[in-house]
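#onboarding

Welcome to the new folks! Below is a worked example of what a typical request in this channel looks like: someone posts a single protein sequence, and someone else replies with the predicted structure as tokens. Don't worry about understanding the tokens yet, we'll cover that in week two.

Example request:
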Amino acid sequence: MTAYRWNSGLDFAGLLELVAQVEGLNRIRFLTGHPKDMHPHLMDVIARLEKVCPWLHVPIQTGSDRVLRRMKRLYTCGEYLDMVDYARKTIPDVTFSADIIVGFPGETESDFQDTLEVIRRVKYDQLFSFKYSERPGVPAARLADDVPLDEKKRRLADLIQVQDDVWKEVAAVQVGSEWTAIAESEARRPAGSWRLRTANNRKVVLHDVSLRVGEQVRVRITDWANTTFVGEILT
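Example response:
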């Protein structure tokens, strides 16, 4: 998506600027950004346009430059981290999520540890993590699937645990924060609860409230569980 180019020279940043002019749109959210397209000009536009949500799903896939080259991902880990740093400096309240693959052909334990270090460094709000499996017809299928299945499972479990530990630190310090959130729907449980979402894609549940879909409210965060926060309406 972020590689968008029109023959008039319009790039993705320019497209966002045009969409932001549409009346009646309060939030603009996009998925997914390729790291090589997440350049400073795009970050500057996202920061300037209040309608564009400060949540960036930018898959890194692995924290190893050697494996990135084998994946033909066209960027380095250092470039990815520079992008994250620039976004955090430029875009207020920006959050990140990503995709990661473990056990790609040729991945060593050292490569895997590099991936864990990236997770600790970026502090993602959410990760979508997978163990590698061969897909016929794609270039990677020409590589020997040489990481044993048990090792892939172990690495995936370790990665999930590291992300859980990182998220606990991130979530805990949000208690007491005050956010603006929009009501999405009634929560499944308990009765009388509503599910809301912030611009930077954090989920909030409010108990014992009466809201309308699309209603915007200010909330104070009082607790959290897993990736969902619990809050109260500010009066």
